[in-house]
Fold this protein.
Amino acid sequence: MSGVPIVARAEQFAENLAIVDASGEYSYQDLLNASEAVAAGLLDGRADLDEARIAFLVPSGFDYVAAQWGIWRAGGIATPLCVVHPLPEMQYVLDDTAAEKVIYHQSFADKLAPLIEEDPERFISCENIRSDANIVLPGIDSSRRAMILYTSGSTGKPKGVVSTHANIASQITSLIEAWRWTSSDHILHVLPLHHTHGIINVLCCALWSGAACEMLEKFDAAEVWHRFVNRPLTLFMAVPTIYVRLINEWEAADPTQQARYSDACRKMRLMVSGSAALPVTVFKKWESISGHILLERYGMTEIGMALSNPYDGERRPGHVGQPLPGVTAVLFDEDGNEINAEKESGEIRIKGDSVFLEYWQKQEATEHSFRDGWFLTGDMALIEDGYFRIIGRSSVDIIKTGGYKVSALEIEEILRTHESVKECAVVGVPDDEWGERVCVAIVATEGANLELKPLRDWCKERMAIYKVPSRLQLMAELPRNVMGKVTKPAVKELFTNAG
Ligand code: MLC
Ligand code: AMP
């Protein structure tokens, strides 16, 4: 038994620049000191947190990492909360994990006030959690649970994806090998830190390598271009919507500025896109303005990254490449037979040390998501000339919008509690900016006067902004098949035809 792998490695990079955020610059030694103080505060005299769930609501930056590492070092399970979730969604995660403590940044004190009032002992600020007590940190076996991330499924409420320290180490080292991370790298981090893309691919890969991670609290296209020009960046990773926004910003700039932006990109060694399909038009446009051939890869919260275009060699637009180091990816047909031929489509199934342990306290769901040791992704693909191409998902009720996965059924369930909603159907409609846009068809209760703006305001109090439908169709009745089931493709068409 030893320490947390990413933390143990930090000793060798003690003086390197680790984090740049709005409050300053921090070394690995700063991270080691701060996270030890968080661990001491959490342990508060105990020898080990023994996998207690510790939630934390901290903006992207040094304090986030100090909390994450502190929880790990004390033997807890790190459960990051989404900084833009309204209270009911946070409450759900806190209830589901039965989090023992919630570490929060002072900037969220007002937002959390109703929850803090109910249970003041449970909540502690970033400043107050730190203790200078001398402690012996517990040994952390790599098979122990390390993190719970919430992910929407095609049924019910989001499920907590539990990864062990070994899973996380495997997810990180696979990417480090494939994308050649070193301690000379410097990455700009613009992604949310309650999902695997921002946590593993960007933050943890940087810190495992001894590299520098420059963290923005929120994505902002102008600010990103500014950093590209002015900072010694080598890497950038984002979802397709972010590349679309950066392209729009570049196009709005004057020619001198455009040239400056483009030159800045050419200094960097790698730019990666993932979390949703990268449209070929965006791939090509980005190449023309930045000179970079975007490396597209495919992954999922439960498995980390699984497929990637090559670092060296052809990066093929519209394709997600081949299995990453340590990952076995195979296509299976509907009868459960392995597909060996090219151009035959099937479900992607995954094996490897990076595959998660379980859905938190959902044994049945965990069992259903595996067959014969393979994790069932629910994503359909085919192989063309040795390159995987994603062609869709097995469930129409999973929507990917701005790189976020959302469940149509979860949104419908909330909408049905609105007094003017009699029936509703939520769908994802193809969209140039968001990949898919969340849209809703509603049959209103008699006499109700439903409009999009007030409906969105109502939703924003109950669900994350990216789940809130941005288009509404009022209908006399929903399209249904002979069995009486709502036909989602027909609902989608309503919006597609409406333009
Ligand atoms: C926000 N808005 C949306 C929206 N999200 N509109 C339609 N669809 C959406 N999905 C609207 C808001 O309502 C608001 O409008 C306006 O956009 C600005 O809101 P915002 O919150 O400021 O949005 P912004 O910060 O610009 O968000 C865009 C984004 C963000 C692309 C930066 O979506 C993002 O960070 N996405 C990354 C998600 C991610 O990391 N996924 C990885 C999951 S892991 P109004 O009118 O209300 O003011 C995974 C595995 C893997 O997938 O393979 O990586
Ligand atoms: P999440 O559950 O949020 O981790 O999202 C994982 C899902 O994102 C996968 O199951 C895919 O549907 C989708 N995804 C990730 N990367 C890609 C990609 N490059 N192309 C298409 N879909 C992707």
In short: The first helix runs from residue 5 to 10. The pocket of adenosine monophosphate (ligand 2) is lined by residues 151, 196, 274-277, 296, 298-301, 320, 377, 379, 390, 393, 400, 405 (CB under 6 Å). The longest strand covers residues 374-384. The chain has 16 helices and 27 strands.
